[in-house]
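Q: For a teaching session next week I want to show students how multiple molecules come together into a single three-dimensional assembly. I've collected the sequence lines for a complex. Could you give me the predicted structure tokens for the whole thing so I can convert them for display?
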Amino acid sequence: MSPATTTNITPSDTSGPARGPAGVQPILAARGVVKRYGKVTAVRESDFDLFPGEVLAVVGDNGAGKSSIIKAMTGAVIPDSGHIYLDGEEIRFSSPNEARKRGIETVYQTLAVAPALDIATNLFLGREIRKEGFLGKLRFLDKKAMRIEAKSQLESLGIATVQDINVPIENLSGGQRQAVAVARAAMFGTKLVILDEPTAALGVKETASVLDLIKRISARGLPVILISHDMPAIFEVADRIHVHRLGRRVGVVDPKEITMSDAVAFITGALAIPVDGQVTEHFHEHHSA
Amino acid sequence: MTTASTAPPKARGSDRAKEIFARSPALGPTAALIIALVFFSIATSTFLNLDNFSTIVGQTVVVSTLALGQTMVILTAGIDLANGAIMVFATVLMAKLSMQMASSAAVLIGILVAGGVAAISGLLVTRLRLPPFIVTLGMLAVVTAVSALYSGGTTTDVSSDSTLTLLGKQIAIGSVNISYGMILAAIMFVVIWMVLGKTGWGRHVYAVGNDSEAARLNGINIKATVLSVYVVAGIIYGLAAWMALGRSPSADPNAFQTGNLDSITAVVIGGTSLFGGRGGVVGTIIGALIVSVLRNGLTAMQIDSNYQNLATGVLVILAVAFDQLTRRRSS
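A: Of course. Below is the structure for the complete assembly, covering every listed component.
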């Protein structure tokens, strides 16, 4: 992406390195998004920016609206107002499926895998490869192609230890299931991947391997949104931290600049986010180095 | 990434056995069928001959076909209590219409109406989100009543109509008589088996039944998938109606009153899970054959038919218990 790309996305007044390097257009951005559930306002005039190639952690207390703003951007819920931009183009998804078609993949906390079905089937669920020719016209599936593709995908992400691609998901450990769901997102995500609490249910070792997986996806150049409460995990993999409080983004911070207790203080509101200029500079250095 | 963290946990022997049965749910029923065949071949002198086997298959062909549709509905975590009633309505409709129009048109309309009636169940399940058990229980009563009203409660004889009874025609291969109905049922079985196992739609049927929310999040249109299953099942019930007229050339509104339960019995004994997403038509055919073999064999041993019902009931409970046990795993 050329730094000279012009954008019609208005600058955000939220402090922190939210604007990113000068002239770089965010992959996914939101301005003034509002989402109400009945009388409850989950997201109030919140902004959001995800820049190319970064791992952005989204943190906030339970009920702060961090999941809601992500859902509002990906069509899982419909925002009441506000603007959403994908690659600078204003968009409004009315279902998660539309977002998927534009290359936005989400790994839900529930993983959204069918436990009785095997790994290859789950990886291609809803996006099966059909056979070529007449059998394909009859909608017959190319199971062999799917198995080969699934295996190479798992191997390229370092999940090759799942030996048998025909094993039902329910026979896998929690970490392996998470790995399959993440691999599916990485396989079809062309714009970005969203991970919702990927380490919440995992042990120490399994968490480490999922974090490795996130690093591998990021190394492919695919930006990642990591919704999480797991501070050590966030500080290990995130490039920037989007802090959400009381329904809106209160700021974006660089994990290299702050301590975990700072981050917790930002989330609870005990500490104000550092001033705008200071952190922007760090962000700039980090990405232009 | 450390290899150890993602290596599959070492399976214990019992887990291994559970896994094998979970991956091939038709394995247990197949073993049961073979045991039954061997047992009755040794225990009776009249059981083991080809002629008797064609009788066994012939006796189960209509219920097997109903069970084929039932399998698909149960795979979506649904159930169809109205399938027998829909089939009976289709027989009555075919018989009545054949008096006013070409019999082939009557058969076609009967099959399509069966699909349409099942579609009503499907729409109520998908649009109003009513439980399939309640929807099809209601449809069972409604369709049974409509059949009775439409036929005036009387049986219509169709034995002189060569089109309506076409599937009862037999071709003799040696001493074995195979009806057209058996051939059609076999073709349908193969087609449904391929569609469920080898097409995207088939995988979606399993996914919807296994975890509908996961299926939805993967972009599968749950409502369309479930509705299409009811429609396809309904068309299969319509074909079963045509087969039934071939076997017994009369449209009796009071026939097949236990068709629904018999088809569920075949599905369950065949290892398909009532919770959806697990099993398939291979098991169902074997399940239907087990019931038919059991009845035939016990009759050959001159055992009271009440004991046959008792044995079938015990089998159903065993099959569901087995399904539950293989589903419970230490994960």
